[in-house]
Structure formats: C-alpha cells, structure tokens
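Customer escalation, tier 2.

The customer says the design service returned an amino acid string that "doesn't look like it belongs to this structure." They asked us to rerun it and document both sides in this ticket. The original structure tokens are below, unchanged.
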C-alpha cells in the first residue's frame, strides 16, 4: 500500500459540499458539452488539515481515507490528481502567481496538439504561473477533445490546474485572460476565397461576441485560423467592450521563417538576426522587411550584398514557405506554428530586448505609417512584458517597401469589403483577385 498525503482547502471541505468546484474533479462532468477536469485549488491549504489518499499498488484508482473528521470517497479523491497533489508540491506552489484562464479553439487540431503541451509545461507563461486550459471544439471533435484532455492529464504537469472542454464559446470563454483562436475551416479544392472568408468569418464573429460577453475585459486574443488578419478584424469588431488593441493576428511564423532564411544566406546562427518586421497580411503579399532587419547588429544589406536575392529570392521564399511545406508534408505547418504562437505570447509577457522588436498583426488605428485605419496589419512592436505593446514608430520605409506594403494593404481592404456583413459595416462586396489573395499554404 503506497500512501500520498493531500491537503484540503482551508475553507469548507470541498468533499462535503456537493456544489463545490472540486465536485467537478470527478472526470468529465458534462453539462451542455462542457466538461471539466480540475486539480485542487491553490493557496487554500493549511498544514493541519490533511487527507491521506491511499493507493493500492495493483488497483487502478486511489482510495481516499478519512482524517480530521473530513469525509472522502474514492469518487471525490480523483485518480491522478490525488497522486500528484502532495505536500511537497504545495510548498512549491506558495510562491506561484494567481491562476490564469487560457482558451484555445480548434483544440483537437494539429497546431493545438503541439501548443497545449507547451502551455501546460510552463514554457510560455513561466514556471510560477499556474494555468487553466479551456478547450473549445465542436460536435465533430468532442470525442477527440476528451482524448486531448486525457493526454494532458497523463502528462502530470504541475502548473496545469484545470482542463475544461466544451463546444459553446459562451461557456468556454468565461473569464479567460488569453484566447488563442486556432479552429477554422481549411480551404478545400475549388473553394472560392470569398466563401472561405464568409465561413470562417462567421466562426470569428460568433467567437468575438462570446469573448465580449464572457471573457475577462482585458483578454488578449491571438487569431491563428486563416485568413487570420481578417478573422481577427471580424473578431474585434464583434467585441466592442474589449480594447481593439488586444487582438492579434499571428504573423510570428512568418517572422521566424524570414529570420531563418536570412541566417542561412549569411551563414550565421539565426539568433544573430534581429529587428525582423513582417508587414501586412499573413498571405503571399506579406512583406518581410530586409531593409530594417539586422544581422549581428548590422543592416542586412551590408551583410548580404546580393540585393537581387533579397528583393526576389528571399521575399518569395518567406511568402511561399507555407505552400512549400504543404507540398513536402501533405499538411500545413503545425509544430512550427505552435512554436511561433509561443514566441508571440512570450513577446507580450516578457520585455522586448533593448533595440529589438517583434512582428504581430494588430489594429491599425493610430499607426504612424499611413496604413489605412480599421485593418489588422502586421507591424513592428515592442512590449514592456505586461501583455500590452507599442508600435515601433521610427522604422524607415523606402520606395520598395512602400509599394509592397501598399499591395498587402489593398489586399486586406479587399478582404474587409468581403466581410462587411460580419463587421457591421454594411453590405459585403467581394472583388478579390485570384492571384494576390493566397494564403501561404495555397501556393
Ligand atoms: N497564422 C499562421 O501563421 C498559420 C495559420 N494556420 C491556420 O490555422 C488553422 C488551424 O490549423 P491546424 O491546426 O493545422 O488545422 P486542423 O485541421 O488540424 O485543426 C483545426 C481545427 O479547426 C476546426 N475546423 C475544421 N473545420 C471546421 C469548420 N468547417 N468549421 C469550424 N471549425 C472547423 C476543427 O476543430 P473543431 O471540429 O473542434 O471545430 C479542427 O480541429 C487553419 O486555419 C490554418 O490555415 C496554419 C499555419 C500557420
Ligand atoms: O495556409 C495555411 O494554412 C498555412 C499557413 O498559413 C502557413 O503555413 O503560413
């Protein structure tokens, strides 16, 4: 017989209170497809009130026993959570920050399958930041989401205090401080881009409304599902109570791809490349800015003297990297996208190194570059590490950049016209050209 010691909450015993949160720790409590896995609460223990949870070595589940007058049953002292919650862990948790709630949509998809385990490990928000994961799926994926939750459970992450799965964004987004919106319909063969904008736009309009109603008022939202700039715009327009500044479209993967290509050409390790801006849309019109990027602190054009390659080979390789990868893999980037989501969030929760910046798709109102207001456009940003950011204001734009930035801007304006019915800006009119409106994965 192995013994694991558990601490009970200082307040009323959750084991005695049928409506307590811990009641939900019984696996897969299901209400309207909203299911909840939960660890014991933090900072609510006293060393004097302990429960012993005894585990038979050859039985499947631990059996809680009574101590200090507190009643426990096998059902309430739930499986792995009993085993992982011991006094030593509790000592460590004393210095932990207050738990934060993180929603992830498309949680049964490829990108999430990489991302969720990074979030739970502490790699993103830090080793003293406990988290609750709120996973949004659909009727299609609810079974798979249970599988995801089980894998998270089996990973024994100390910082992962709670896992909820559900299909209703109004429930899943309740009190979330971060929302990572990945779930979106992929473009199928023969599908018009306007149709994709409409189908995915509806998803992001609904999720914007739900965030507006249920999320923490200062929630930070990172839109990954494509076309991510316009989806982010739809989302923010449907969430008027949340600052527009809090919405991001993921262009960090493009930034990382650009750094990699420059490092390769210059023959340096990629950590030597800094100040990399991606301007514009996450599409083949995006502009990887080699004018302002630096290698070993020097302007790229001084280090790489083949300027034709910069203007053509480099630029195109970044714009079309996603498509090439699909050709090789047979599916779009998932692991590197998850890594870039981690990078994007870390850039907001840690101070930007002196003199450097990062790229993210943000709302253009008040931008110093003359880019049309009312778009979500990738630009250079800096953060103090408080979750917020400022636009970098003094980046040089030459004629080459200006022309290409204008093309991406025109593309986003066209996308915006296609979704006017979803942003509350009138009747949609879709005049997207066939060539200039490709996702990176469509080439
Ligand atoms: N911004 C960027 O840099 C990148 C963006 N992407 C984009 O990220 C998104 C997700 O990619 P990935 O995880 O690989 O994709 P997957 O297809 O593996 O999973 C995405 C999830 O989207 C949801 N989904 C699929 N079809 C529909 C639909 N018709 N309606 C609503 N939801 C749907 C599904 O979840 P459920 O059934 O639970 O709703 C699915 O699990 C895609 O839009 C992709 O283009 C990809 C790479 C880079
Ligand atoms: O088009 C896609 O789905 C893939 C994508 O965004 C990328 O690889 O950058």
């Amino acid at each position: 017989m192995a013994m694991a010691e558990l601490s009970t909450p200082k307040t009323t015993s959750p084991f005695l209170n049928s409506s307590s949160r811990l009641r939900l720790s019984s696996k897969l409590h299901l209400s309207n497809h909203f299911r909840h896995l939960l660890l014991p609460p933090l900072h609510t223990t006293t060393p004097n009130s302990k429960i012993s949870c005894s585990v038979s070595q050859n039985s499947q589940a631990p059996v809680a026993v009574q101590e200090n007058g507190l009643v426990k049953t096998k059902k309430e002292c739930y499986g792995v959570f009993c085993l992982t919650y011991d006094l030593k862990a509790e000592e460590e948790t004393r210095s932990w920050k207050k738990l934060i709630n993180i929603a992830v949509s498309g949680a049964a998809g490829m990108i999430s399958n990489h991302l969720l385990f990074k979030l739970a490990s502490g790699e993103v928000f830090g080793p003293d930041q406990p988290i609750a994961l709120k996973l949004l799926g659909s009727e299609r994926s609810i079974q798979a989401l249970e599988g995801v939750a089980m894998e998270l459970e089996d990973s024994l992450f100390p910082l992962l205090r709670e896992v909820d799965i559900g299909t209703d964004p109004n429930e899943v987004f309740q009190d979330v401080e971060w929302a990572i919106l990945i779930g979106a319909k992929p473009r199928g063969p023969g599908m018009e881009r306007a149709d994709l904008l409409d189908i995915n736009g509806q998803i992001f309009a609904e999720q914007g409304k739900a965030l507006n109603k249920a999320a923490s008022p200062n929630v930070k939202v990172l839109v990954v599902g494509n076309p991510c700039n316009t989806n982010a715009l739809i989302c923010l327009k449907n969430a008027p109570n949340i600052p527009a500044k809090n919405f991001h479209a993921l262009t960090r993967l493009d930034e990382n791809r650009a750094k990699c290509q420059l490092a390769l050409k210059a023959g340096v390790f990629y950590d030597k490349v800094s100040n990399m801006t991606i301007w514009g849309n996450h599409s083949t019109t995006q502009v990887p800015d080699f004018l302002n990027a630096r290698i070993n602190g020097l302007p790229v054009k001084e280090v790489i003297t083949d300027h034709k390659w910069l203007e053509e080979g480099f630029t195109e390789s970044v714009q079309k990297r996603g498509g090439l990868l699909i050709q090789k893999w047979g599916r779009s980037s998932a692991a590197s996208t998850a890594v870039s989501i981690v990078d994007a969030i870390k850039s907001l929760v840690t101070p930007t190194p002196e003199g450097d910046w990062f790229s993210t798709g943000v709302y253009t109102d008040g931008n110093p570059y003359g880019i049309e207001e009312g778009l979500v456009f990738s630009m250079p940003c800096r953060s103090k590490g408080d979750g917020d950011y400022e636009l970098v204001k003094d980046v040089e734009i030459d004629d080459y950049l200006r022309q290409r930035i204008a093309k991406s801007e025109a593309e986003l304006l066209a996308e915006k016209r296609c979704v006017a019915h979803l942003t509350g800006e009138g009747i949609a009119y879709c005049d997207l050209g066939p060539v200039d409106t490709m996702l990176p994965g469509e080439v």
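Tier 2 assessment: The sequence is consistent with the input. Residues 106, 108-111, 137-138, 140-141, 182-186, 203, 224-226, 228, 250, 253, 282, 332-334, 337 surround NDP (ligand 1) (CB under 6 Å). Residues 1-33, 41-67, 70-87 have pLDDT under 50 and may be disordered. Sent an explanation to the customer and offered a walkthrough call.
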